[in-house]
Amino acid sequence: MPKRLSNQFKHKITFQSFIDSQTENGFDEQAWDDVVSCWAGIKTLKPKEFYEAAQLQNENKIRFIIRFRKDIHSAMRIKHKNRFYEIIGEPINDDMQNITMTIHAREVVADAHTT
């Protein structure tokens, strides 16, 4: 019997894209826009991975596991609660089965482009 995935996805996340738009006064504006929300599993790094990430100064690296989607790409970012994560590399189709995908990301510090 296949393993049920619903128990693994306990965190609501939102994927955002950086868009260019115009204000009602005609000024150009750039902002992050919500694209799609979904449920995800969040995995922290194992001790060995954490040590390796610390060597590269990527201490806030994390993995998100979601149901497979074709509309997620590395130019997006992830919003989870009040935190934002930059996607590192392209999302990975787990075992090439189109069931789940793994997204490696690192937390970004708030700046003018965060909100």
Could you write a compact summary of the structure shown?
This protein is mostly beta strands and 115 residues long.
Describe this structure in words.
Helix content is 8%, strand content 48%. The mean pLDDT is 84. It has one domain: Bacteriophage SPP1 head-tail adaptor protein (Thrombin, subunit H), CATH 2.40.10. It contains 1 helix and 7 strands, in the order E-E-H-E-E-E-E-E. A 6-stranded antiparallel beta barrel has the order 1-2-3-7-5-4. A hairpin with a 5-residue loop joins strand 1 and strand 2.
Spell out the blueprint of helices and strands.
Layout: E1 11-22, E2 28-43, H1 47-55, E3 61-67, E4 77-80, E5 83-87, E6 92-93, E7 100-108
Antiparallel strand pairs: 1-2, 1-4, 2-3, 3-7, 4-5, 5-7, 6-7
